[in-house]
TrEMBL record:
It comes from Luteimonas terrae. Residues 137-221 form the Quercetin 2,3-dioxygenase C-terminal cupin domain. The lineage of its organism: Bacteria, Pseudomonadati, Pseudomonadota, Gammaproteobacteria, Lysobacterales. This is Redox-sensitive bicupin YhaK (Pirin superfamily). PANTHER family: QUERCETIN 2,3-DIOXYGENASE. Pfam families: Pirin_C_2. It comes from the Bacteria. InterPro entries: Pirin (IPR012093), Quercetinase_C (IPR041602), RmlC-like_jellyroll (IPR014710), RmlC_Cupin_sf (IPR011051).
Length: 226
């Protein structure tokens, strides 16, 4: 089964000066048809104006990943620029870092995944997306290929495609898969997706190709338990 979530269907809410676009129900936005996608509980694109601050909050039993899409995000005074993926495994409970947007602001993608075990010790880590084309593994349950060792049978892969480039996509029917367009555009089986659009698959084996639009594409693929 394939589901389509277009960018303009996402919920929009404000937190002070921050704007949040919510793929699934989150905070003040509630959509009973979009409560999550398996273990993927949140996927929020957040716009932070220059100097905006995100206070610490107490979180337990959730794998939190923040991908910096544009600008610079300071976390407890440490700067992370575009391409950084920061992981917080909240475990039995931990405070998220205080965040502040840099002088040019920041645009980030917030990902929350339910872990497969609860009350684990808190954990953190940082990795970066690759500059070369093709798939790059960013997070995996065993930390393979120097990826972040998240506590779920989930894999995060990032891809950068040049204009018109083609990239094979093979998906297992026993897992769920979520493809998010971060920049540019891509065609999947003739369906054109733009930045902010997404496709999800479950219970189907997929063998297809992704073809980047004239401006290229940057993609995130999240594979989850079925």
């Amino acid at each position: 089964m394939k589901v389509h979530r277009s960018a303009d269907q996402r919920g929009r809410n404000m937190h002070g000066t921050r704007t949040r676009l919510c793929t699934f129900s989150s905070g003040d936005f509630h959509d009973p048809d979009w409560l999550g996608f398996g273990a993927l509980r949140q996927l929020n694109e957040e716009q932070l104006p220059p100097g905006a601050t995100v206070p610490a909050q107490r979180v337990a039993n959730m794998e939190l990943l923040t991908l910096v899409l544009d600008g610079t995000l300071m976390r407890d005074g440490v700067p992370f620029d575009a391409g950084a993926l920061v992981w917080t495994g909240a475990g039995h409970g931990s405070d998220t870092p205080v965040e502040t947007a840099g002088a040019e602001g920041a645009r980030v993608l917030r990902i929350a995944i339910q872990p497969d075990r609860v009350n684990l010790p808190p954990a953190t880590g940082v990795t970066r997306v690759a500059s070369e084309a093709g798939w790059t593994l960013l997070a995996a349950p065993d930390g393979a290929e120097n990826s972040l060792p998240i506590r779920q049978q989930a894999w995060l892969r990032h891809a950068r495609l040049a204009p018109g480039a083609r990239l094979d996509l093979a998906l297992d029917a026993g897992q769920r898969h979520w493809l998010q367009v971060l920049h540019g555009g891509v065609a999947v089986d003739g369906q054109l997706l733009a930045a902010g659009d997404a496709l999800g698959w479950h219970s189907d084996a997929i063998a297809t190709a992704l073809v980047a639009a004239s401006g290229g594409a940057v993609l995130l693929l999240i594979t989850l338990p079925g």
